[in-house]
Amino acid sequence: CSGPSDVHETRFLMGTLVDYTVSGVDQDKAEQAISAAADEMQRIEDTFTIYGDQPNAVKAFNKEAPNTPVTLPDEVSYVLGIALHVQQQSGGAFDPALGGLNLLWGFSLDPPPASPPSADAIRAAVPPSHCIRRSGAQWLRTDRRCQLDFGGIAKGYAIDRGIEVLRQHGITNAIINAGGDLRLIGSHGKRPWRIGIRDPRKPGGVLAELDLKGDKSIVTSGDYERFFIYQGKRYHHILSPKTGWPAMQNQSTTVMAPSAMLADAWSTALFVNATPPERPSSVLLMRVDKAGHIHGKLQ
Ligand code: ADP
Ligand code: MG
Ligand code: MG
Question: Is the pLDDT of residue 225 over 90?
Answer without folding.
Answer: no
